[in-house]
Amino acid sequence: MILITLDIDWAPDEVIEDTLALFEKYAVKCTLFATHHSDVIKNCNRQLFEVGIHPNFNPILNGTSQDSPEKVIDKLLEIYPESKGVRSHSMTQSTPLLDLFKSKGLKYDANHFLPYSECLEPFLLWNGLFRIPYNWEDDVHFMYKNDFSNFGLDLVKKCLNVFDFHPIHVFLNTDTESTYINAKEYYHNPDQLVKCRNTTNTGTRDALIRLLKKINSDKLSHATLLEFYLNAK
Question: pLDDT for 80-128, tens place per residue?
């Protein structure tokens, strides 16, 4: 089983739309962890895409925001009230946060990252929240300086693999940290961002397309995280 997720990370709609179009092309399901209001996300094909929330608690932790964690969550749930899943920006978590997620009606948490681990096993937390780990992330892959021509995972073995991509890295076809850093000043300017796209080395976009093609060609099982949670209950 392959589950693919996207951490939206405040990407502009043109960048989000570019990534979602790839999933539409190959008819593969995906879970979006949203950070902000997006017309593209609000209007996306709910047969393919599930929307969860991606709250950012970092400003609270570094003292630049007076918001409470509850207010951060509530703001996102006002935009996407149907959300049942959560992955925090920077994977921020704690016992109080996990209990807060549960109290807000969220059903699963996707904050547990185990890079390149085989045969992931979801589990139930003490409060009834279902935890779905993940084992591949695009920016971590390039921070390890790993080649994007190889995921470092066995996709044929009948195990659970959960991927995390970011639209910005898909758009840039990020292959190394420097590719992203050199483009970061244009984060909200897609016309300039596309000029920074990596066209020389195998990158994130190439890896995603290869994964989507493999799911189709090998008829690999895929689902949204919510579907996986509901089937696992």
Answer: 999 999 999 999 999 999 999 999 999 999 999 999 999 899 999 999 9
Q: Name the token pair of 223.
A: 């689902």
Please report, in angstroms and rounded to a whole number, the separation of the first and last CA atoms in the chain.
16
CA distances from 128 to 18, 30, 99, 107, 189 (A): 36, 24, 9, 8, 42
Residues of the chain with pLDDT under 50: none
Question: H/E element holding 31?
Answer: strand 30-34
- Beta carbons within 8 Å of 34's beta carbon, 6+ residues apart: 8, 41, 51, 52, 53, 54, 76, 79, 80, 83
What tokens appear for 178 in the block? 């420097």
pLDDT tens-digit series, residues 27-42: 999 999 999 999 999 9
Distances from the Cα of 97 to the Cαs of 24, 45, 125, 138, 202, in angstroms? Answer: 34, 30, 12, 25, 38
How far apart are the C-alpha atoms of 136 and 7, rounded to whole Å? 13
* Element housing 124 (H / E): strand 123-124
